[in-house]
Structures are given as C-alpha cells and as structure tokens.
C-alpha cells in the first residue's frame, strides 16, 4: 500500500514538472515559430529580389517596387516589406525603416541587402544594379544551402538503413544458407 507521504511527494514532483513545462513550452514554441518564419523569408528572398528588380527596371521607384512585391507576395517577407513601407509613411526615415526591417527579420542575407540599399541611397548608386547583384547573391546562397542539405542526406539515411534494411537483407540472404547448413550438420 502506498503511504500518503509518498503519494504527496509524487504529486509535488508532478506539480513542479507541470509548472516547469508551462514555463518553458511557450518560449520553445515561440522560438520554433520564429525559426519557421525566418526559413520562409529566406526561401522567398531571391524571388522577391527578382520581382523588385523587374519592377525597378520597368520604371518604378524602389519604394514602388517594394510595395508591388509586398502586395503580390505571400508570406512573412511580403508582410515585412509592407510594414517597412508603413514605417516610412508614418514619418520614419528610409534608413531607419530599412534598419528596422533588418533587425526584425534577423536574416543575414536580408541584412546585407539592407546595407547595400542604404549605401546605394547614400552614394547615389543605381538601385537596379544593387538589386541585380543582391538577387544573384541570394540565388547562389540558396543553391549552396540546397547542396549542403544534399550532402547531409547520406548521413541521415545511414541510420535507418543500418537499423531497418540491413537486418532484413541479411535474413533474406543468409537465412536459407543457415537453414541448409543446419540441415547438413544435423544429418551427418
């Protein structure tokens, strides 16, 4: 029979465990959502740059191209572009708005793009050249990430291969040979 002291101790431990879960799980879920959001923005970045480049080369200004990309795009990057434009409309300087975009998103590629746009704005460099170079860099980085994932794939496949496929393969190949060997040695 379980005494009341041991059951109250178990209940206290269970209560502490539940409190700790309640304390840490929201932070973990928020961090996970943030990571998903950043990955989605990284995937959208090169296409958004291309769309903005096409708009600028067609005659729109940079803010107009951002607005077009924000309106036509879907996902968190489009939302961030719209928010950046809203920041400018309420009186924030372009530089501050772009830096706030880089700070909010915390994506290295977007941060370098923002720095390039700020420099182009400061020194009067044609924004279409900046967009073209940045879009090319984004595509190269996306390709490198894909190649990196492809390089990691054989290592990820190795564990299931060793655990599930090889034992079945050994049984299928060696099973009949072992049965024949047992039958041969048991006769003679």
The overall number of domains is 1
Q: Could you say what the CATH topology is called? A: Receptor-associated Protein
The CATH class designation is Mainly Alpha
Count of helical segments?
6
Please indicate the percent range of residues in DSSP E strands (runs of 2 or more). under 5%
Radius of gyration: 29 Å
**Major sheet description:** none
Class from secondary-structure proportions: mainly alpha
Terminal-residue CA separation: 60 Å
The CATH superfamily name is Type II secretion system (T2SS), domain F
* CATH architecture classification name: Up-down Bundle
Low-confidence stretches: none
Shape, please? flat
Percentage of residues in helical conformation? over 70%
Order of helices and strands: HHHHHH
Number of strands: 0
**Averaged pLDDT, please?**
88
How is this structure best described in words?
The protein has 188 residues and is an all-alpha fold. The protein has a single domain (21-156), classed as Type II secretion system (T2SS), domain F (Receptor-associated Protein), CATH 1.20.81.30. The chain is 89% helix and 0% strand. 18% of the residues are buried.
